Amino acid sequence: MLQTQQVSFPVITDPVIIDGTSQPGFFPKGVPLIELDGRNVTQANAGSANGLTITAGGSTVKGLIINHFKDNGILLSTKGPNTITGNYIGTNDSGNGAAPNGDGIFILDSPNNDIGGADHDAGVCNKTCNVISGNGLHGIEIRGVNSGFTKVQGNFIGVGVNGMAKVPNDQDGVSIDLGEGGATIGGDHDVGMCNGACNLISGNGLHGIEKETAVLHLSAL
Question: Strands (DSSP E) along the chain, which ranges?
């Protein structure tokens, strides 16, 4: 289901669950079917050009394709925690070609967010894994002194859903500049495999991970 936006969705100011996995046909393959396409959204007609803007905290976004938004695919600001899982952000509906947002996910002064999960199979971005690739700026940008304790685990960043296609973000895979609490990037996985909480970060235009001011907890990217 393709939804081409003319203006951005309203800012989400109360906790919400946006669950694309409930769309008939999502199972058994687990491929997102609901696509938010922002190619017609401009700052002039919308004030901002984000796919989803969430300020409430306590929200979950899963099972969507979010692309062509000129600012950010998803903006998380002000409050946390929020959970972002199982999405294609910055790619086409196949998950293997670019359809860029500005940033894929921009976290601004929003703490305790979970981006991805710890359950994807080796060599494929499935289950809670997000594909965050093909964006015009960063895949994930984390900014602000109140954005600490965010976890980025079990995502494909700069590659396609199959783990092979080159779908780089033009700048950094993950760009971080935040205050106390730091961020956790990656986590446990089986020896010799990128599964579980392992992030597959490859081929991005500048850096895989760029840390300006932050404490990072790196484990099995």
Answer: 2-4, 17-19, 34-37, 52-54, 59-62, 64-67, 72-77, 82-85, 88-89, 103-108, 114-116, 131-132, 140-144, 150-153, 156-157, 174-178, 183-186, 200-201, 209-213, 216-219
Return the C-alpha torsion angle 177, 15, 10, 113, nearest 10: 20
Q: Are 191 and 199 in contact (CB under 8 A)?
A: no
Asked if 197 contacts 117 with a C-beta cutoff of 8 angstroms, the reply is: yes
Give the type of residue at 18. Answer: I
Beta-carbon neighbour count of residue 169 at 10 Å?
31
Distance CA 1, CA 156 (A): 23
Positive or negative CA dihedral for 161, 104, 220, 63? negative
d(C-alpha 194, C-alpha 75), whole Å: 27
Q: What is the pTM of this model?
A: 0.94
Q: What is the DSSP letter of 48?
A: S
- Residues of the chain under the 50 pLDDT cut: 46, 220
Q: How much is the pLDDT for 46?
A: 47
Nearest-5° Cα angle at 73, 67 to 76: 165
